[in-house]
Amino acid sequence: MATDVAGRRYRAWYAMLLRLYPRPFRERFGEGMAQTFHDLCREHRDTRRGLFGFALWIFSETLVGIVRENITRMNQLGRTMLRVALVALGLLMVPLVASQVVDGWNWGPGAFVFAYVMFFGTGLAYALIARKVGGWAYKAGVGVALVAGFALGWANMVHVADSENPAKLVYVGVLAVGGAGAWLARLEARGLARTLFAMAAPLALIAVMLPSGAPPYLARNMAILHGVFVALFTASGLLFRHASLAGLK
């Protein structure tokens, strides 16, 4: 009886120890490791061998593996961040060079910092989110959503932020809905699909209502631009919906 109690206690402690592994490793191997430990404990119990020394050895070996896996993951994250940072720096060269050769391109230092943050944040978000899920629809949905969000934020900064257009608050609100929706959905495909559809709705409304008092050419251009954003957000929502349905099969 005492051996059974000790075995249950060691298995509970081992399950807690496995939680220290990085989540992808734990989801892939954690159940099998816990089952193997359970079987070995039962084998030691049946042969009436002591469990304490065995459990101590397994716990020590597992702890070393935990440290190794977390260091490896940190190194991978560091390499990913470095690659994204370099790509973002390369993309920043485009507006930096343009500001030197294009008349009227008068960005201040703050605009370049904001642009770099957008490049880096968008790239890092895709790298961290897309690699968690192997489905093509989910990855494509993430890519389309981030491209559309980046383009909307960029257009808001370049064309709207310095104007008196009240629509800029709506655009910021759309991006805020995207961020809040992704957080509430915990990046699950079904919740992300609803979030993207919710982002597309106000932009579709603006495409119909906002240009009504503008000159015809401006109204047409604004309607086309908003239509592109609506199409992108809707397409991303449909991709997430496809990923959600595929996950239920």
Description:
The chain has 249 residues and is mainly α. 85% of the residues lie in helices and 0% in strands. It has helices spanning 2-18, 23-46, 52-101, 109-130, 136-160, 167-185, 189-209, 216-248. Helix 1 runs antiparallel to helix 2 (23-46) and helix 7 packs antiparallel against helix 8. The model has no long low-confidence stretch (mean pLDDT 80).
What's the helix and strand layout?
Layout: H1 2-18, H2 23-46, H3 52-101, H4 109-130, H5 136-160, H6 167-185, H7 189-209, H8 216-248
Helix pairs in contact: 1-2, 1-3, 2-3, 3-4, 4-5, 5-6, 5-8, 6-7, 7-8
Question: How would you summarize what this structure contains?
Answer:
The chain is an all-alpha fold and 249 residues long. The chain contains eight helices and no strands. The chain has two domains: 1-107; 133-248.
H/E element sequence: HHHHHHHH
Strand element count: 0
State which percent range the strand residues make up: under 5%
What coarse outline follows from CA principal-axis ratios?
elongated
> Structural class of the helices, strands and pairings?
mainly alpha
Number of helices: 8
The biggest sheet, with number of strands, parallel, antiparallel or mixed sense and barrel status, is: none
Give the tally of structural domains: 2
Helical proportion?
A: over 70%
* Rg over C-alpha atoms, rounded to the nearest angstrom: 26 Å
Our measurement of the CA-to-CA distance between the termini, rounded to an integer number of angstroms, reads: 45 Å
Unreliable parts: none
Mean pLDDT: 80
